[in-house]
Write the structure tokens for this entry.
Amino acid sequence: MDYWLHRISYLAELSYPLLDKGFLTIGFSDFSFEEMIERTLKKEWDYFNNRFTEIWGNTPRTRYNLWYFLRFKKGDIVVVPTWGAFHICEIIDDGPLLIEKSFSTDLKAWGNKKVVLDNNLLAQENGDSYDLGFARKIKILYRNIPRDKFADSKLTARMKIRQTNANINDIKGSVIKSIENFQLNKPIHLHSILIDKTARIILDTIKTELNPDKFEKLVKLYFQSAGANQVYIPAKNERDKEGDADIVAVFENLKLIVYTQAKFQTGQISEWGTNQVLEYKTNKDSVDDGYNKLAWVITTADTFNETASNLAKQNQIQLINGVEFSKMLFNNGIIALNRDI
């Protein structure tokens, strides 16, 4: 039995519904044919490489992700990172499957979008294919294990790797320990206990001492202390403006821009802020400037309504409630807040 890490953030709108149906997926739809599976399982590396040269004209490093994925074995354990959590899955098939084997007539992507089978690939009703080529049949043993409570430093660091998958046999003890502590509901970090006890105090103080304008400045200060090279509040009369962002944070070294709506509210908030920041990001996405762009909504409220949550899932928008933001402030260091807001 081997231990693996495999992330499914690619085409999340379909990969997560397939995961819920018991299928772990990967892209590479250009290579979705039986011979690719058969020859890879025989460890025919030259054949594998030659198919990339023949079809793509090069041999990208990412091809290793497919090589590993096709060679997962029945009984292998796979850690699947999600937003702030992770699943523990077991491979239960006898070998990899072409993506068509994961299709069912009731399969739908996020947004209740119907998925069809077209030329052995999963596709939208308009005929556009999803770039998913292969699947593994899995059983989810444990769902949504919180990272901050049950993943030790080794497992946490490994879940931050950029590649799609990796063998993690060297830290399988960390995986086993996280499962044991999750079963016992026993957080393994003093850090987690301190955060849980402190976050509500921080949030209550923010609500009592600040106002909407000062909360925006607090969010701005958070991004500055988190390493952003530039943080600014866009002009309200910005030219050709669509949607709205209260704070823009630029991380130059990462070629990353985060557009954020900051909502100083209580209780449950609506989808309005989520729609606003989505429209703003979508407008900025049309500019080919080499930056990756993310959309966040940070609020002092406790929850987001169902419409906002669904909209966020469908468009990969990060929703951060008051307690979660308080934890982020704590993790970033209270000393960073020693400025006028």
Q: What stands out?
A: The chain has a mean pLDDT of 90. The chain has two domains: 3-184, 200-337.
